[in-house]
Amino acid sequence: MAEPVISIRGLTAHAGETLLLHDVSLSVSAGEIVTLSGPSGVGKTTVAMAAAGLERPGVTVRAEVVAPGKVGYLPQQAAETLNPARRVGHALGELVGLDAGRLSREQRRERVAEVLRLVAFEAADGLLRRYPFEFSGGQRTRLALAQVLATRPGALVLDEPTTGLDAVSKAGLLRQLRALADAGAALLVVTHDPDVAATRTLRLRDGTLTDEPPPTAMPLPRTVERGARVAELRGVSVHYGRMEVLRDVDLSLFAGETVGVVGPSGAGKTSLARCLAGLAPVRGEVFADGKPVPLLRKRTARQTAYVQYVWQEAASSFDPRRTVLDQVAATAVRLRGLRPADATGEAGEVLIGLGLTEAQAGRRPAGLSGGQLQRAALARALLAEPRVLICDEVTTGLDAELAVRVLDCLDAYQRRTSAALLLISHDTRALAARADRIVAVEHGRVVDSG
């Protein structure tokens, strides 16, 4: 085997007094794609950050890490690396210039276009002049990867890079990762995605590396019946500046049903969810419980509790200064009027049901993985006891066992409350097993429902 481009020896990690990882060693050579999987919270991101020479807040790491060349790192919450105040073209142009030195304007544009093609974008002028908020979650992940590739790293450490991508975009990205490896790059990829073709596959469990294959589990059959209409969009259109992202959309949700939403990245799936949650100004009408509802900032506590939304980039929704348990419990205090002690007890039970330990719930957000924070965000929404629960890629980045656990938890909540669930996902297999009907969104319109 060739000389390793990334080498980690004897990695041990602690979060406070808790041992996360013990004596972990791995290497990645030029031309390799090494995948790293394991349950949420087991320490995969800690290993990835150590490989990239980065420190994780709240985690103490001891290891011998050798990576003599340039290492590019794409975090799990990749979209947060984008500057919301800068146009895409300007940000990429600056990064290209840092790598290649003095370039003419035309040379810089050609290099930006080349980088965008690597992540399945065409560098049209309209795209280059847009801001990050004008893209879908999956598109922002690809743009974040473009920023990493702009500096031409010899090694890449990618944490769940296929998160939120539709099948076409994912296939294009995986081809490009293979091409990068064929060109001599070394890739360490944290992923639960079986479509990532690996040279070698490693699995973390109980703080150590093993060759144990990931568990597989089949979803339980659904038995919930549909009831009365609980939410509705009538003739809804959404514009961001001059760009139309939704056009004349009609959608009804009924008590007790699960509706799956599918479509390419950028089709308008997340915008549809934001309309129901009151996070996007609309033309048209939004109804909940049979009554028109305003934007979220103008909704009453009852209206806010009625529709809850768990979005893709959940980590950014937590206050870094407070424990996760306190923030989850605060929802029941604010929206349901529970006493703090009762809310804390209920929050702890829901978090444990979603696979988080008492110790993990007592940490601040920086002490949890992206998958753990995603489940904490779901627990926070459940504490509101919503009649409509919207989940945008809620199982993305989870191993198969945890994904089934989360979906089973949603099923149990629905059986108990007859809530309507709107599940946005690129996992068509999971939607086929769980959803009562599927809504397809393309180019800002609902093109199929059944």
Report on the structure:
Helix 9 packs parallel to helix 12. The chain is 34% helix and 27% strand. The protein has helices at residues 44-51, 88-100, 105-118, 125-128, 137-149, 167-182, 269-277, 301-306, 324-336, 340-353, 358-361, 370-383, 400-417, 428-434, and strands at residues 4-15, 18-29, 33-37, 60-66, 71-74, 155-159, 186-190, 200-205, 208-210, 229-240, 243-254, 258-262, 283-288, 291-292, 307-310, 388-392, 420-424, 437-442, 445-449. A hairpin with a 2-residue loop joins strand 1 (4-15) and strand 2 (18-29). It contains 14 helices and 19 strands. The model is unreliable at 214-221 (pLDDT under 50). It is an alpha/beta fold and 450 residues long. The longest helix has 18 residues, at 400-417. The protein folds into 2 domains: 4-210, 3-Layer(aba) Sandwich (Rossmann fold); 229-449, 3-Layer(aba) Sandwich (Rossmann fold), CATH 3.40.50. The strands form 4 sheets. The chain has a 6-stranded mixed beta sheet with strand order 5-6-7-3-8-9, sandwiched between helices.
Defining key terms:
single chain, 450 residues, alpha/beta, Rossmann fold, 2 domains, six-stranded mixed beta sheet, 14 helices, 34% helix, globular
Present the secondary structure layout.
Elements: E1 4-15, E2 18-29, E3 33-37, H1 44-51, E4 60-66, E5 71-74, H2 88-100, H3 105-118, H4 125-128, H5 137-149, E6 155-159, H6 167-182, E7 186-190, E8 200-205, E9 208-210, E10 229-240, E11 243-254, E12 258-262, H7 269-277, E13 283-288, E14 291-292, H8 301-306, E15 307-310, H9 324-336, H10 340-353, H11 358-361, H12 370-383, E16 388-392, H13 400-417, E17 420-424, H14 428-434, E18 437-442, E19 445-449
Parallel strand pairs: 3-7, 3-8, 5-6, 6-7, 12-17, 12-18, 15-16, 16-17
Antiparallel strand pairs: 1-2, 1-4, 8-9, 10-11, 10-13, 13-14, 18-19
Helix pairs in contact: 2-3, 9-10, 9-12, 10-12
